[in-house]
Amino acid sequence: MKKINMGFVAILALFFVLISCSSEMNDDVTLAPNNESIAFTKNQQNSLSVSQIPNNLGNIPVYVFYNSNKVDHLYTLDRAEGNNLNYEDRGVLGSVGDSKSVWPAYSPDYKITRWYNRRNGDRLLTQSNEVDNNSDWVNEGVLGLAARSDYDGNSPVYRYRGRRRSNHFFTTNFNELGNGNSAWVYEGIGFYVRTRIN
Question: Is position 27 within any domain?
């Protein structure tokens, strides 16, 4: 009887230690706007859908919206932004990390910044300072931390620029536009996002 009680006490003590560590970790992690983190799975259209995973992983979804009248793509962390602009919801590009991400999948050295071109309405996501000194571009802030290229479950985001219209398009599916076409110029890999949680 004493062995059972001591084993039970040891398990109970371990349980309280784990709960204590878990609550401390949750205090240090910034979550997506709706306090949910996400996992991604491919569906038939090669876009991503969202499913729940534990809240303390630091994954923030990047939502994709499109306005066919403007031929404009919008990439945002806030689904309400796209809805308020009456853009069509196209799903999730992948996830980026926040400044307190606990995943080793993100690199604190690679921040993705969103820029807005006040002259033509284009939005650009970039890790570089390519438009820092261009007065047409307005820095809208850091979108999040890019995923590391060498981490399992992370995918490249392919960057395209419209040939006729000032518009950038980002996708994790290279087969969607490949090396470009008559409407889109392929500009290479822009950054990496998390598309699968192991």
Answer: no
Q: How many domains does the chain contain in total?
A: 1
Q: What is the 3-state secondary structure (H, E, C) of the chain?
A: CHHHHHHHHHHHHHHHHHHHHHHHHHHCCCCCCCCCEEEEEECCCCCEEEEEECHHHCEEEEEEEEECCCCEEEEECCHHHHHHCCCEEEEEEEEEECCCCCCCCEEEEEEEEEEEECCCCCEEEECCCCCCCCCCEEEEEEEEEEECCCCCCEEEEEEEEECCCCCEEEECCHHHCCCECCCEEEEEEEEEEECCCC
Q: Which two tokens stand for residue 144?
A: 């999040």
What CA–CA distance (Å, rounded) separates 55 from 9?
A: 29
Each residue's pLDDT tens digit, 42-78: 332 333 333 333 334 568 899 999 999 888 899 999 9
- Domain holding 189, by residue range, is 60-194
